[in-house]
């Protein structure tokens, strides 16, 4: 008998390899992330973090190995199908519609989730539900007071909050965040950490994050990616004490 999806890791990498021509950028990664876990991937520039996120979210296809979501293979599926399967990714590069309002940006995701087309006539009851769900996400990411402002007029950290909100509108339970606090002040970072903690409650989070204080305060476990290999996976405290990691990465960061 096969195990039920509840017993499966939320996300599993099994021998995931990616080559660009002769260069093997990811070299057979194995990693299980449990449902509800918050997991960080850290590593020096060029280690393969973006490539890994591109594989998981369907932008690239693995050269070998498998990626599964709740026990079902998603390797090689389109980003859209992976999203429908329950995984959403927020990008390092801002991915919002600057000339739409904050509310409209969020509503696009909710509409897409419910399969409502952008036609002239929409069922009233369905639109009410869409608007209520949108308002819920708006409040959860702390942007209720900015509801009708253009997304392009938001501050940088508010735009990042909006992007996180857009991942929530899809209803995904596995969220990928790419450097969510990059470019933020210390105060903005602290707010972003609290926001991420609250909106990912009960969900599975995989994030690329360079700021170790963010990793320490938010993540259950950390994987260190160096030259396309996972050097170590452990709780943040043990990662920071790991001599191999310090030499390969943390030492370099501190230098
Ligand atoms: N489309 C591509 N074609 C060829 N090589 C690529 C491609 N994408 C990435 N690479 C190479 O793969 C390696 C890993 O790159 P990747 O961007 O995944 O690293 P990273 O850990 O995200 O780095 P950074 O922190 O600088 O964003 C690099 O050597 C990069 O040059």
Automatic annotation (TrEMBL):
Domain ABC transporter residues, every copy: 11-252
One MF annotation (Gene Ontology) recorded for this entry: ATP hydrolysis activity
GO CC, any one term: plasma membrane
Keyword Nucleus: no
InterPro entries: AAA+_ATPase (IPR003593), ABC_AA/LPS_Transport (IPR051120), ABC_transporter-like_ATP-bd (IPR003439), P-loop_NTPase (IPR027417)
Keywords: ATP-binding, Nucleotide-binding, Transport
Classification via Pfam families: ABC_tran
Record carries keyword ATP-binding: yes
PANTHER family documented for this protein: ABC TRANSPORTER ATP-BINDING PROTEIN, CONSERVED COMPONENT OF ABC TRANSPORTER FOR NATURAL AMINO ACIDS-RELATED
Designated name of the protein: ATP-binding protein, ABC-type branched-chain amino acid transporter
Annotated organism of origin: Aurantimonas manganoxydans (strain ATCC BAA-1229 / DSM 21871 / SI85-9A1)
């Amino acid at each position: 008998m096969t195990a039920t999806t509840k017993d499966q890791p939320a996300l599993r990498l099994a021998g995931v390899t990616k080559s660009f021509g002769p260069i093997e950028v990811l070299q057979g990664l194995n990693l299980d992330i449990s449902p509800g876990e918050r997991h960080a991937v850290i590593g020096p520039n060029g280690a393969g973090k973006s490539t890994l996120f591109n594989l998981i979210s369907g932008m690239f296809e693995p050269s070998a190995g498998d990626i599964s979501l709740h026990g079902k293979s998603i390797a090689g599926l389109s980003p859209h199908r992976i999203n429908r399967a329950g995984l959403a990714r927020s990008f390092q590069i801002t991915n919002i519609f600057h000339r739409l309002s904050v509310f409209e940006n969020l509503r696009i995701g909710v509409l897409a989730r419910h399969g409502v087309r952008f036609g002239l006539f929409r069922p009233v009851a369905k639109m009410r539900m869409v608007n209520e769900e949108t308002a819920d996400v708006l409040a959860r990411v702390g942007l209720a007071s900015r509801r009708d402002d253009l997304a392009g007029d938001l501050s940088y950290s508010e735009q990042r909050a909006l992007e996180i909100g857009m991942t929530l509108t899809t209803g995904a339970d596995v969220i990928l965040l790419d450097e969510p606090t990059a470019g933020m002040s210390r105060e903005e970072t602290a707010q972003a950490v609290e926001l991420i903690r609250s909106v990912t409650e009960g969900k599975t989070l995989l994030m690329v994050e360079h700021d170790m204080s963010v990793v320490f305060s938010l993540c259950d476990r950390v994987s260190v990616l160096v030259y396309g290999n996972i050097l170590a996976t452990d709780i943040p405290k043990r990662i920071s004490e790991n001599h191999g990691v310090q030499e390969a990465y943390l030492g370099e960061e501190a230098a």
